[in-house]
Design a protein that fits this description.
mainly alpha, single chain, flat
């Protein structure tokens, strides 16, 4: 048996038939029945993914009570994002203008 060196970029434990599979050009090859089956399966999985409803954490909230009403409120969401944005702005200003050499001195 002839010892063929591995293709560059491939681990040496990959067999010769697998190396040929990676290096051969399949652009002119005819599509086999297995490829058509895999293609239709892939299309079905893609369609199922597109038809799936968008994830919304609010669907797991309780339907009654004060806390769930606050958590579902648009004003609460806007206020939370405003606080996060202000915090990011404050951190950037503090980092730019704070001349302390250690965190303890800041």
């Amino acid at each position: 048996m002839v010892d063929v060196p591995p293709v560059s970029g491939m681990p040496p434990e990959i067999g010769i038939s697998q190396q040929q599979q990676y290096t051969s050009s399949s652009s002119t090859a005819a599509v086999s029945g297995d490829d058509m089956c895999a293609s239709s399966t892939l299309k079905d999985r893609l369609r199922q993914g597109l038809n799936r409803s968008e994830y919304d954490v609010r669907s797991y909230y309780k339907t009654e009570g004060c806390c769930q009403a606050v958590a579902r409120a648009q004003r609460f969401e806007s206020l939370t994002l405003a606080v996060i944005s202000f915090n990011a702005l404050w951190i950037s200003i503090d980092v730019d203008y704070n001349k302390a050499t250690t965190v303890m001195d800041a």
